[in-house]
Amino acid sequence: MRGSLVRSRAAWLAALAAAVLAPLALQNPAHQNLLVLTGVNVILVASLDLLIGQSGLLSLGHAGFWGIGAYTSALLTLRAGVPFLLALLAAAATAAASGIFIGYPSLRLRGHYFVLVTFIFGIIITLLLTSLVAVTRGPMGLPGIPFATLPRPWGPPLTLNTFQGKTGYYYLVLAAVLLTLWLRACVVHSRMGRALVAIREDEDLGQTLGIHTHRYKVGVFALSTGLAGMAGSLYAHYTTFLAPEIFDFVASFDLFVMNLVGGAGTAAGPVLGPVLLTVVRDLLRAVHPVLAEILFGLFLIAAIAFLPAGLVGGWRRLVARRVSR
Question: Which of 31, 33, 95, 309 pairs as cysteine with 69 (C-beta 3.0–4.6 A)?
Answer without folding.
Answer: 95
